[in-house]
Fold each of these.
Amino acid sequence: MAHPAHYREAHPMVFVLTHWINLIAMVSLAFSGFYIHYPFFAGFMGVARGMHFFFMFVLIINLTFRIIAAFFVKSAVSLGSREVDTDIKNWLPQKANRHQFLAWIKYYLFMKKDHPLGAKYGVLQKIAYIATVPLTFVMAYTGFSIWGPTMDWSFFSAGAGWVGGYMYMRVIHYFLMWVFIVFTAIHAYLANVEGFAPSGLIFAWKESEGLHFDKEGNPAGGKAH
Amino acid sequence: MAHGNHDALYSQLAARGVTRRDFLKFCGSIATLMGLAETAIPQIAAAVEAAALTPRAPALWINGGACTGCTESMAQGMTPDVATVVLDLLSLNYFETVMMAQGGPEMIPGYQEGVVEAKPELTAEGAIKTMLEEGGYILIFEGTVMTGFGGNALRIAGKSQTEELPEICKNAAAIVAVGSCAVDGGWVAARPNPAEGKGIQQFCKDEGIATPVINLPTCPVNPEWVVAMVIDVLLLGQLESGAILDKLDDFGRPSLIFGQTIHDNCPRRGHFENGEFVYEFGSAEEAKGYCLYAVGCKGPQTFTNCPIVRWNDGASWCVESGAPCIGCGNANPLSPGGNWVDVGAPFLNRMPDLPIAGTTFQPSTIGAAVGAVAAGALLVHGIGMKVAGRMDGGAPYEDVRAHDRKKGGGK
């Protein structure tokens, strides 16, 4: 019984859009990628490849835009707060995240009864979200290394040589897709397991009431820190 | 060039039933293979004509661990063709597979009776000795260098091959590695590789030998590529000028031959784009000549010009004759374990088996297992969250961080 409030300041409209674009692009890429890996029904290869290349560019451009926007758009500093600061600060580790790494692990392993405090995002959440940025770029790199028009570029072919050839680059590209799938599964699970209010906000920009926290990530009106 | 020279070559050709027109057409196809313009045809023709008059370039054909398939590929024609004439420009002074068994001088008839004087140069061993002393020959190497069992994986004439090979490599002007085994170990070096096979380039590197190596993978080698290299190296003088090395890719292969994927030049490519695949041999799809991608065709990552040059005098090639490409043109000469068999097998699967903990797994099995473990873990965790009563908003928040509490509860 501890819902934090979810206010639009947490996810300004522009990030609701980039999140939607990410979701659509990733689902399209995973589906078309599986099909290119093995065409499990007939008649779709040309479309699958077209989808894969189109959404690959969409995903990269969207991610690049999202990173740049993080330096200009302000978002809420804490859960259940309307107080805002530059978005990138809320992504990177903050004072409110300090010493909470073990607390989160213990909480998720049921070794800690009460919910750890965080900033806008908890420690594990920040690690996972930040990791998706290099992961996406590495994924794109492995993809360009096996894509006809770019595989000859020395920047990409050097990588293919380093991993032992184009076949192994394919295998790596394939495994990275599973990393994305596992990330998305855990992300969707943790975002919704304690209630669907976070989804309401990120997908439909729908606010919900709940607990408030101050900009230090402490319960608002709770103990003075 | 004097007409006399022309006549010398053309009478040779005519003796083999090759017309002058055939010969010029052949020079044209060689120009294409070497990436030269049509204007280079007279230059190639003149080079071959001139070479026909000069002493033949010495060459050694040495077999490592090999099935001699490349030798057979070179000897493919039932009737000698133009290529044979060009290859005759090489004086193959030593060629184990096709020369007669020979021993020391005592094997020469009449020697033991004292009737014939010893002429060691008449024996194979004598020939190889002379060539080693003179140097500057072309070494054509077929098969894998087998270093296992202290070099005893391959013994020739009572000696292990690895004993003699360094000197043979060192004194050569250039090494042409014919066939995948010579390039990176091929079949012989495939997992678990008990013979510790490796390609000739890796062998030279390990022995500190700097002789340039030209790699011509595929199993077996395509004779047309060997002919193109012979002309490049011998006749156009590209070895002396070093120009030949600039034409090689990162894997030491002539980039004009190994520069594009089979997939990009495949006659079945249209079926690929349409999503028309053979899923099973003996099916209606196979009869229609659909794309072989779903039965493991390695064309998309194999860089050879097989679809253009084709095989057996341009008769056909693997995919055209209905078999998926198994990627024999893939080469990774300086990367042990990167040989095409380990990279491509099982051949009818899209991806190779990966060796893990003493056994092998398909990447898709590993991926699905990782996905299933993650899904299972989330399910179990979800049950835990339900039992712990956290589904509705999670547990109540701590009022202060555990770390801060230890420090004295608030600052």
Amino acid sequence: MKMIVAYINPYKLDEIRDALKDAGVSGLSVSNIQGFGRQAGHTETYRGAEYEVDFVPKVRIEVLVDETLAPTVISTIETTARTGSIGDGKIAVLPVEDVIRIRTGERGRDAL
Amino acid sequence: MDTGDTAWMLISSALVLFMTPGLALFYGGMVRAKNALGMLLKNYIAMGIVTVTWVAIGYTLAFGPDAGGGWIGNLDYWGLRHVSNVIEGDAGAIHGVAVPDTVIMVFQMMFAIITPALITGAVAERMKFTTWAVFIAIWSIVVYAPMAHWVWSPDGFIFKDIKAVDFAGGTVVHINAGAAALAMVFILGPRLGFRREIIRPHSLPLTLLGAGILWFGWFGFNAGSAFGANGLAANAFVVTQIAAGVAGTVWALMEQVRHGKATTLGFASGAVAGLVAITPASGFVGPGGAVAIGAAAGVICFLALQIKFAFNFDDALDVVAVHLVGGILGSLLVGVFADAELNPASKDGLFFGGGVDQLGRQAAAVGIALVYSFVVTYVLGRILDAVMGLRVAEQDERRGLDLALHEEQSYVLAD
């Protein structure tokens, strides 16, 4: 089993969710985050005072999947999130030791 | 008693009261999330404390029979003694209008409440709540009440001797609060991280909602200052709308030209600046004057934002640029755009062939209001700083006033 963590542009979320559903993903978690990478920050202006803000708003997606589905999920996110501009984000793939469905107590793949 | 007039003044009183929650949201959205409740409470507490001080002594000092020289009212009406809701004859015994004296008393109370609340924008994110509570109690008695007497009591020396006019509070409310804000900023010093860290508004939707409530309530503030449901109230209502609309638009235009982008905070700030500037003029100028005053507020208050950076004082939410500068502008422009045909209480302004006579009177009132408020507030602030301390401890300021002073949070993660 794999945990796939993707940091993406917020406006790409709907497109990615739809693509992942079509690819057979049965659930995912999303959070609003802020961060910086190679993408430079931006300027915000409040009553004429300009601030250089390093952190840009991003969305983090977490998907738990079976090994067999992982390559599809990764390539789906990769192609859907890509615009070619700086700031498209990153995908991390982590090994998962176990998964437990709290309601039933199922373990491993059955819990996905 | 005129029931129409009385109904309008009751509603106007409620409208003016509603401006204080509006102001609380306007300011509350502009501070960081960790200080939002601290800001809201510093405003709301004025609705509690100043109600008490006004009833006890503030009202009689402002509108009681003159104690001599037009300086202060005597104590005849302390605790609202002799303030009646019954009218014998055509007019109330104290205020001389066809509305019960109790109604005018409560209308004036709402002004006494919002004026110290305006100062919260300058002391934002660093002042102790307890000291603030004591400050507004004393300030409403030693600064607000005398100035209301000078300008609005028929015996007051600015009204009677200088013959300056202030329809709804350019001097009494806005210059008064703005000069006090400046004095408090000098004593408090800048917030930790001022000009070094990013200190951003945490919720501009709250600020815009607050600005909308202020705009709505301002119709009671200005049109209610006609003390009746009449043509003068209609004029004040119309010029209030014009000045706010013009100033908000001009401010947004200034941003578009200078920074390339108009902002929500800019439009809201401009609208409030326009409302401030038209306040003293709303019963004396017509639509043309309102356009000019609104445009002047949009340009000059916008440029005045830079003052705090030039002099490096942390007027956190720009009370000086919006209220002090806007109040001075509007009070002076009465002397330019006043039309005596509209309201004979003011002489014709410069633009209507009256020369600089009224302008000079207005300038004198502006100077007196500015100096009195600044000096007395500065002395009061210094005394309270020595006795109670004005500023929270450094770790409390970093943690945020909401948790440090009130043990509450605006936004909890989950329930």
